[in-house]
Design goal:
alpha/beta, Rossmann fold, Arc Repressor Mutant, subunit A, 2 domains, five-stranded parallel beta sheet, two-stranded antiparallel sheet
Length: 278
């Protein structure tokens, strides 16, 4: 198993040394726990994903999972769940999209789990970059954002599955296996709604959120406006010019029928707050 020693992405595991020396294995396990504890408490870039060792003469056929989430506790919890599966193992994790992309390049995971809201970056942008660089790499989104709005946006960006954190997290392993098989994963509720819309042949006005009229990039800008971020700050985070962000602001106002910047900020703030409550 590949071991990445870069400070930005520490991964498990040294099976042969642990197996040959039980005392060393115990110390290594204790050290791994300390690393995870320190990472969670200090909100650092790294949380070690330790997994159980395999006999040296047995080929590791487990599918490798890389986790990208801006909360250390969430990463740790998901890693613990995945590492209990016989066919899956976490090979690494990170909170930042740019560094996560670098780690994916080095660790070569079989699947990536990511949130849409990341530290100083956008999960949608990460999905687009992963799709461009690794077309065959499945991405499963695990996020707090409303699936009725964001699932479609995530799929357009290149994701293959969408699971809300409000769902039972025990569903994550089965969702991973589904996207690994090249299949789309959505919740039963969203699948039913999508099927009903397809049967009707169109989406009714009542079902359609006004946010869905926005492009993927406009949704990102709209969300950042709702987080009270200034135009220059948004431009910096999205690596775009201030003029481009101003253009997106005008497009959003036009599509949502908002008369000025103040109304745009109020509308975006109210929408973001509703998303947090959900």
């Amino acid at each position: 198993m590949f071991l990445c020693w870069r400070p930005s992405c520490i991964t498990g595991a040294v099976a042969s040394r642990r197996e040959s020396n039980p005392n060393a294995a115990a110390k290594s396990s204790e050290a791994a726990k300390n690393v995870s504890t320190r990472s969670a408490s200090q909100n650092t870039d790294v949380v070690e994903a330790a997994s159980g060792p395999l006999p040296t003469d047995v080929k590791d056929t487990r599918k490798r999972v890389f986790i990208v989430d801006d909360h250390a506790v969430v990463r740790f919890g998901i890693a613990q769940l995945i590492n209990r599966q016989g066919d899956l193992v976490v090979c690494g994790e990170h909170e930042d999209a740019a560094r996560a992309l670098d780690c994916v390049n080095k660790l070569k995971p079989d699947v990536v789990i990511c949130d849409l809201s990341l530290k100083d970056s956008s999960g949608l942008e990460l999905i687009r970059n992963l799709k461009a660089q690794y077309p065959g790499l499945p991405v499963l989104v695990v996020s707090v954002h409303d699936e009725s709005i964001y699932a479609e946006i995530a799929f357009r960006a290149g994701a293959l599955g969408y699971l809300m954190k409000q769902e039972i997290l025990d569903k994550i392993p089965s969702a991973i296996r589904r996207v690994l098989g090249g299949n789309v994963y959505v919740s039963d509720g969203l699948a039913s709604k999508m099927l009903q819309q397809q049967v009707r042949g169109q989406v009714t006005t009542a079902d359609e959120s006004p946010i869905k009229s926005l492009s993927d990039r406009e949704v990102e800008v709209f969300q950042m406006i709702g987080q009270w971020k200034k135009t220059k700050e948004i431009a910096g985070e999205l690596h775009l010019s201030v003029k481009t962000i101003e253009y997106y602001r005008e497009q959003i106002k036009r599509k949502l029928n908002l008369k000025d910047a103040s109304e745009l900020t109020q509308y975006a703030t109210a929408w973001v707050q509703r998303e947090v409550v959900k």
